[in-house]
Each structure stands twice: as C-alpha cells, then as structure tokens.
Amino acid sequence: MNPDQLKALEIRRDAKSRPRRQLWTIIVGVTALTGAALFFAWPRVSDKVRIAKVAAKPLERSNNPAMRPATNPGPAAVDPGAAPAKAADASGAVLTVSGYIINRERIELSPRFMGLVKWIGVKKGDPVTNTQVVVLLDDAEYKARLLEAEGRLASARAAVERSQLHYDRIAKLATEKVESKEMEDEARINLAAAKAVVAEVDGQVALIKTYLDWTIIRSPINGVVLEKLVDPNELVTPQSFGGTRGPSTALIAVADPGDLQVEIDVNEADLSKVFLNQKCRVSPEAYLERHYDGYVAEIAPEASRQKGTLQIKVQIRKPDKFLTPELSAKVEFLPAGTGEAGR
C-alpha cells in the first residue's frame, strides 16, 4: 500500500472527539428521574399522619352511595356446607340426631297349636281393646274330645260310687267279724284307685277345655292392628317348618299407638352427651314445626363394632296422630337440668 492510500485511511483529529454536551444531558436526566422516584417511594412520618386523617373523615359526606357505610348491616351469608353445631347451640341442644319412630312393643299373636283359621274379625288399621276377640280357630275336634272325656269322667265317677258301696259293706262285715281284715283292705284300695281314675279323667277334661279356650284369640292390649297376617281357612302353627310354603306362625300384629319411641344410633364420639332419663325434643321430619317432649328410656348395653354406634331409644310423651311408626324424626338432646320441652 502506497503512502497516498495510507493517508486516505487516516482519521482526522477533529473527527476523533465526540460532542460531550449530549452525554451530560442524558446523565443528568437519568439522575433526576431516579431521585424523584426515591423521593416518592421512601416512607415518611407525614405520610402516616395524612393517611390517618383521611380515614378519620366521615364517609357519609361522599356523594357516592357505594362509599357510605351501612347503618343496619344485614345478616352474614350462611355457608350451606357448614356443620349444624351452631344451629344446635341456638336451640339449646347439646346433640341432634335423626332416627326412626317405632312402637315400643309390637305384639304378634300366634296360635298355641296347629289349627285352621275359622274367622278373623279385624283388618289392618282397626282399633282393638284388651280381651277383644279377634280370631277364631276351628274347634270341632276339641269339642268332640271334650264330649269323649266327659263320658269317661261320668263312667269313672260311677266306678267310684260302686267301689264306695262295696267298701262300706265289707267294712261293716269286717266289724262284725264276718269278713276278714284282708277283704276290707282290698275294698279300700279299689275305692282309692277308682277315685284316682276320676281325677285323671277330670284333668283331661280341663286340658281339652283349655285347648278350646285357646281357639279363641283375644287382643292382649288396647291398640291398633298393624298387620293382618292370615285369612280364613288358612292353616297356622306356632312353629315354622323352615320353608316359605309352610303354615303361618302369626295371626295379626298389634301395638299401642300411644306408646311410641324413636330409635337412633349415636356415634361413639357423642356418647358423653347422652344419659338415661335425659330430656329430649322430638320433631318428625314430616312436620318439623311440631315438637314433642321425650326422654332417654333405653341405652343399649352393647355397641355396633361395624358402625361404631350405640343404639338409643327415646320415649315420646303424649304422641298423637302426626307420629307414624317407621317414619324418620329428629331428636334434640337437651342439657342436664333442662325442663320439659313445650308442644
């Protein structure tokens, strides 16, 4: 490369220096912006005082209704998934559990022997009274047996009379030394045997009369017929033959509608809240606005291991037509010292 070409590539001295005024302008601008940002961002005591003064101003002077405080705030929103413990506390109950209404005693009338239903005078839902005749079984066989036994009883009594006359005669002759003492003893033994036969036959007559009385089925309580289990001309028996085609083992089922309980299963974690004779408030699920007094009448002696519960029975005081067995009901267990709940 010749000297002329090198000289053309040489940078002039005046082109090497850049204008420094623009550079300082940029540096000063950036520094000013940074300082302003730090000034407004740094917390100061005056800022706290200013915020407190703004918060102390009454909001009702604002023209915006949304900024005005509510004078009478409404109730807080209720979470539908919340536990019912708060509701139980509001009602004064320490525990609330649901169960089923049952009859305290369900009585199924069964025959004492195999027989044929001759007549049944009630149907489901009919009221019955104590000792009322509800079913008649066929009694023709036992009436015939009674006639037979009464005939044998009459014959046995005649034999006693004959033996008595014979003994009296032998005893008189033995006194006069005409008959021996041995004949007198034999006559006395024959008389005793005849009397024993009378007692035996008399017992048979009483047994047959008892069977005849058993053919008349009476209601043992004042109540209502829950279920009619047989029809006329149907064979019944006190024992099951083990098959579904065997005779029925019960005639009707009765119960007292004024003697009702609520059967519930209480979780073992809540057992400490329940005790015997504890006051309760019962509300049928069909009529939750109705309340009935009750008390804990029975606590099962054994728990269910599978369910982890213990069965409790709550006796209902003064039940009425609104309480139907086998329907569900809510039971509220009241704390100790609580009086009876009102209707």
Keywords:
single chain, 343 residues, alpha+beta, Elongation Factor Tu (Ef-tu), domain 3, 14 strands, rod-shaped
How would you portray this structure in words?
It is built from seven helices and 14 strands. The chain has a six-stranded antiparallel β-barrel with strand order 1-10-13-12-11-14. Mean pLDDT is about 80; it is low at about 50-90. Helix 6 packs antiparallel against helix 7. Strand 11 (about 280-285) and strand 12 (about 290-300) form a beta hairpin. It is rod-shaped. The protein is of the alpha+beta class and about 350 residues long.
Tell me the layout of helices and strands.
Blueprint: H1 3-9, H2 13-16, H3 20-41, H4 45-56, H5 85-91, E1 95-103, E2 106-109, E3 115-120, E4 127-128, E5 133-137, H6 140-175, H7 181-214, E6 216-218, E7 223-228, E8 235-236, E9 252-255, E10 260-267, E11 279-284, E12 292-299, E13 309-316, E14 328-333
Antiparallel strand pairs: 1-10, 1-14, 2-9, 3-5, 3-8, 4-7, 5-6, 7-9, 10-13, 11-12, 11-14, 12-13
Helix pairs in contact: 6-7
